[in-house]
Amino acid sequence: MKQIYLINEHHPRLLLFFTGWAADETPFRPYRPQGMDYIICYDYRTLDFNATPLYNYTEVHVVGWSMGVWAASHVLPATGLNLVSCIALNGTPYPIDERRGIPPDIYQGTFDGLTGASIHKFLRRMCADSTAFRQFLERTPRRPLDEIRDELACIARLNAALPAPSLTWTEAVVGRNDRIIPPVNQLNAWHELGTPVLETDDAHYQEPLFKYHLQYRWTND
Question: Would you say the pTM of this structure is higher than 0.85?
Answer without folding.
Answer: yes
